[in-house]
Amino acid sequence: MPAPRLRSRSLRKVFRRVPGGRTSIHYKRKKHKQARCGNCGAVLKGVPRELPYKMRSMAKTKKRPERPFGGVLCSRCMRRNIIDKYRQ
Ligand SMILES: [Zn+2]
């Protein structure tokens, strides 16, 4: 039976084969959901799905596309948003 703090469903089990040959269970944090477009809800590309401590050590340029509304809107919604803005 694992320790009470590990009996939570917010942790996922990872089965690891140890050098002795037996399998031990490691408990890891779950990853968050994939980033989605704020307008249409499509999955955003170029936005990594990583644990917070990995995101913290990652460069800002690796966390979202470098364009207006990168990491917020998908490319199609961004394009339409900008075209609508400058249309007379
Ligand atoms: Zn969109």
User: Helices and strands: which structural class?
Assistant: alpha+beta
| Arithmetic mean pLDDT | 94
| Outline type | elongated
- Which hetero ligands occur in this complex? zinc ion
| Biggest sheet descriptor | 2 strands, antiparallel
Taken together, the total number of domains comes to 2
Strand composition percent: 15-25%
**Helix tally?**
2
Distance between the termini: 68 Å
What is the share of helical residues? Answer: 10-25%
State the total count of DSSP E strands. Answer: 2
The helix/strand order is EEHH
Over the alpha carbons, how many angstroms does the gyration radius reach?
20 Å
Low-confidence residue ranges? none
Strand order of the largest sheet: 1-2
Care to describe what's here?
The protein is an alpha+beta fold and 88 residues long. The protein folds into 2 domains: 1-30, no CATH class; 32-88, no CATH class. Helices cover 19% and strands 16% of the residues. The protein contains 2 helices and 2 strands. It has helices spanning 52-56, 75-86, and strands at residues 11-17, 23-29. The protein has a two-stranded antiparallel sheet. Strand 1 and strand 2 (23-29) form a beta hairpin. The longest helix is centred in the C-terminal third of the chain and has 12 residues, at 75-86. The termini are far apart. The model has no long low-confidence stretch (mean pLDDT 94). The structure holds zinc ion (ZN). Zinc ion binds at residues 37, 39-40, 42, 73-74, 76-77. Zinc ion binds next to helix 2.
